[in-house]
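Reviewer comment 2.1 asked that we show a complete input and output for one of the modelled complexes. We chose the PBG case, as it is the one discussed in the main text.
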Amino acid sequence: MNIRPRRNRKNSVIRSMIEETNLGVEHLIYPVFLVDGKKQKTEISSLPNNYRWSIDLLLKEVESCLKLGINTFDIFPAVDDKLKDVVASYSYAEDNFYLKAIRTLKESFPDMVIMSDVAMDPYSSDGHDGLVRNGEILNDETLPILGKMAIAQAQSGVDIIGPSDMMDGRVGYIRSALDKSGYADTSIMSYSVKYASAFYGPFRDALNSAPKSGDKKTYQMNPANKREALIEAALDVEEGADFLMVKPALCYLDVIHLLKEQFDVPITAYNVSGECAMVYAAAEKGWLNYEMAVAEMLLSIRRAGANGILTYFAKDFAQFQKK
Ligand code: PBG
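Response of the prediction step:
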């Protein structure tokens, strides 16, 4: 045998010399849940290790994450059912606790980077990402609501707007709404290729945001499709997206790879709640080594081509790295 690939694996020095993919805390975005009130820290039953925080406690949590090198956070509001309506008006209301909390966070930690979803579901009494009429999700009528939501978030200090609704034309609409309001520097990380997935369950539990009727298949993509991802991504680039996101991550590594090959804007991937819940559950049963499984999963998403990864594992990964 002339060629013995095992020679390049014979010790850890050589193995790390030829490592092709790197993964660090700088690549991670940490999704966290916010609830109104004080001294609240309630665990999400289908997503152990993750909590709905009130702002006083979230401030402390963010501080400890910053110390570990996690600088980017995606914050999601768990909104009381009483505040939800068909037009998601609370999403841009003056006294919205979420928008106030963003202000407080930015005042306390000016260098933290805050990302925020733009979609109607956390605020909608229908539990859909768009406006519902006679059982239909209306596209064009949803756009002005998303625009108002994006402006309100930018005003509060959000650095990166994440349109996660999958309405057609929303990136362009939001981009021009932001620009007209003086927020040309606010970035857009578009949920460009977002599939109608079974893996969002724990997230919908966290926000109590599951659709009241029907499903999201008329706007989120069919898991069978890959070529269609190119259409979505090309539109978002044209409309002004700064990052293209693929969601979920693990069942769609081929799509992450495809986008990386085809587009020059940075690609991110959302390692969603259900993907993380599977690992928490298996680790709890002693079926998997948690630390090794997390590192391997995140590495695989980077290897597929993601620059950044949104993951509920962010803090644990950072802690493992510190060790
Ligand atoms: C809302 C939204 C969802 C997620 C992020 N933003 C759920 C959905 O589309 O139903 C899922 C994130 C996760 O599962 O971790 N538009």
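The mean pLDDT is 97. We note this here for comparison with the apo prediction described in Section 3.2.
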